[in-house]
TrEMBL record:
Free-text function comment from the UniProt entry: IGPS catalyzes the conversion of PRFAR and glutamine to IGP, AICAR and glutamate. The HisH subunit catalyzes the hydrolysis of glutamine to glutamate and ammonia as part of the synthesis of IGP and AICAR. The resulting ammonia molecule is channeled to the active site of HisF.
Annotated protein name in UniProt: Imidazole glycerol phosphate synthase subunit HisH
Catalytic activity: 5-[(5-phospho-1-deoxy-D-ribulos-1-ylimino)methylamino]-1-(5-phospho-beta-D-ribosyl)imidazole-4-carboxamide + L-glutamine = D-erythro-1-(imidazol-4-yl)glycerol 3-phosphate + 5-amino-1-(5-phospho-beta-D-ribosyl)imidazole-4-carboxamide + L-glutamate + H(+); L-glutamine + H2O = L-glutamate + NH4(+)
Record flagged with keyword Protease: no
Known EC number: 4.3.2.10, 3.5.1.2
Organism in which the protein naturally occurs: Faecalitalea cylindroides
Length: 204
């Protein structure tokens, strides 16, 4: 069972519909007991990092997620804002601490030559050969919606990126049994479904 974490922010039903299209057993839930019993978790998110972490803390889900990842050692996928929450901190709204599952910080996108926020399709470039790369089309394009991006991460954790102006956008990152996508796989057509399928069936 895949549990999609409902903390009041995120494209919950788009993610659920994508998993349904893959024939994956999943649920949208805000109940701690459901998260604890799940095989894997998905943390979606749209909005501001500060609101994200506050909502998770107020609902009591933050500690449940920490226990799931650090003590139960089960897989977690963060999508968009959900991926940013996996890092140590974000400079959005001053400074907000993230989960710290992955080394790195989230900073504001700044480049006067491109439109910000970064909205729309962009190509995804892999930095290493791995099973996930082989599942994508030869020229994968994915859908982004964001104004902040990851920096100062361990290069060994980076799986794939996109270029936007002079910025190198961390598209896919993995560390242990934690995985993040800055883009929205649930909105990224066949390539997006492939990454969700990989998380469900192969990512450990």
């Amino acid at each position: 069972m895949i549990a999609i974490i409902d903390y009041g922010m995120g494209n919950l039903y788009n993610v659920k519909n994508a998993l349904d299209a893959l024939g994956v057993d999943s649920m949208i839930t805000s109940k701690k007991e459901d998260l604890q019993k799940a095989d894997k978790l998905i943390l979606p998110g749209v909005g501001a990092m500060q609101d994200c972490m506050l909502n998770l803390e107020k609902s009591g889900l933050k500690e449940t997620i920490i226990d799931f990842v650090l003590h139960q050692k089960k897989p977690l996928l963060g999508i968009c804002l959900g991926m940013q929450a996996l890092f140590e901190s974000s400079e959005e709204n001053g400074h907000t601490k993230g989960f710290g599952f992955i080394k790195g910080n989230v900073i504001k996108m700044e480049d006067t030559n491109v439109r910000i926020p970064h909205i729309g399709w962009n190509d995804l470039q892999f930095v290493k050969d791995m099973p996930l790369k082989d599942k994508f089309s030869k020229a994968p394009f994915v859908y982004y919606v964001h104004s902040y991006y990851a920096s100062d991460y361990d290069k060994e954790d980076l799986v794939a990126y996109s270029e936007y102006g002079n910025m190198k956008i961390c598209g896919v990152i993995m560390h242990g049994h934690v995985m993040g996508c800055q883009f929205h796989p649930e909105k990224s057509a066949e390539d997006g479904l492939k990454i969700l399928k990989y998380f469900v069936e192969e990512f450990v």
